[in-house]
Amino acid sequence: MAVGVGAATMLGVASDGRRPTLASAPAPAKAWERSAGGVLPTYSLAEVATHTTVEKGVWVTFRGGVYDITTFVQNHPGGVDKIMTAAGQSVEPFWSLYRQHLQPKSTAADGPVPKDHVAEILAPLQVGWLDPAEMARQKRSAADDNDPYAHEPERHPALKLISATPCSGESPATLMSDSWTTPNDLFFVRNHHPVPVLDDQTFTLEVSSLGGNVRSFTLAELRALPQATVTASLQCGGNRRGELNSVRKTSGNAWGLGAISNATWTGVRLVDVLAAAGAPSDEETAEAAGVGHVELEGVDGTTASIPVGKATSRSGDVLLAYEMNGEPLPPDHGFPLRAVVPGYVGVRNIKWLRRVSAQEEEAHGVWQRGIAYKMLGPDVTSADGVDLSKVAPVNELPVTSAILVPQPDAKVAAAIDEGAPASTVEVKGFAWSGGGRGIVRVDVSADDGATWHTATLGDGSEQPRHKAWAWTFWEADVPLPAAVAAKGATKLVCKAVDASHNTQPESVAAVWNLRGLANNAWHRVPISVVPEE
Asked: Which ranges in 86-232 belong to alpha helices (H)?
């Protein structure tokens, strides 16, 4: 929740008309401190969670206090969508990302301390306190060691959870365009099992060649090898799967568009690790030795493999990464070591990596040879009788793009009078293509594809066209003709073209498949149109 000093004059009355008091809190800057003789009511977390609309009041919590920010929502400098992401919950995880709200010397021991002007805005908006007994019970229940998921890492509340155990969480669409590299806390999560609790001091990676030679590396030994850094986007093969369900139900998580994120990864190249282990480290030598694939195995048992040509290519940029955006890998993203296979589907980027081995054939298991990542035709509604061994696994994903701004069902003001000049709609989004194929054009429409306008490519467009591992941001001011605006609703559409001049298909029906993989149909966003004032 970003705030400005001048906004304080617009605040001070709760949504029900009461002017909240801070009891004996000595000054507005201390508004978050519990007062022994406080007169404000106590609320449960469940009660706070119901206050997520202007009609019911928009509430947030901070250091045990409950605040009604309804009157401030429309004046939030970062936009309504940003502040509403925190509605009904704590703002502390959000402010850990948007640190302009906090004193620079806030410490973990003291808890986050807001800047003076932020505290001044919060003070008159306090309507109560969180129930301390409930919060204590919550901490006790989280310590149940009999639950295999008892030690899951804490996750940012802005993640859109598709599944809690194992965790599948989308990057929030309202925040995705804020930064070209996704903050670690907002990077999408796709786990198949509980997150392993690992010690980087005792960690070892086993690397084996086809002849049976095995070498183990500690993390310190890996760090002693030449360091490499690559910025790459990872995308789950099921991203946008939910749209396919409008045709026929698919199997798997009904992801929206947030199962893709971008980060800068630091580690050692896989080819250098293979060389250090005495394994063939160039494609020609490896193939002569009978190596066709390099298998990657995680501590959680997830296995996958990549073709030897990708694994041994220095330009393929395959990393064994130990840092993400300049910090040690978070537990959800593979601490202490993971594979990063730029341009490949997310499942090949094995987390909590414990073993690398040269193999004649691709890995066994559901994630490689089973149906999980096999893309069948739109007419195949059952895998019965299908010889999956003859179906190629998904590796490089096709070109895709999506609209991030405006959000679905947003209200856009436009001229609707006949003969009036067309208004414009500001549209922003991302585009990406597998295999390192750069984005050369994005086309955007404000009338469901009847007419098109070329977007301006932004961050990411400077990447080499055939080594573009990261997504590209784009934006466009798209004309909205009065005749279209007068109908009161329309659909914004985008489609991208990559460096190989692949483009996106028009309909989800054309790309429907049983597993719901690789949906790259035109992305459509419905909006409402209201008359300009």
From this structure: 92-97, 116-122, 132-141, 219-223
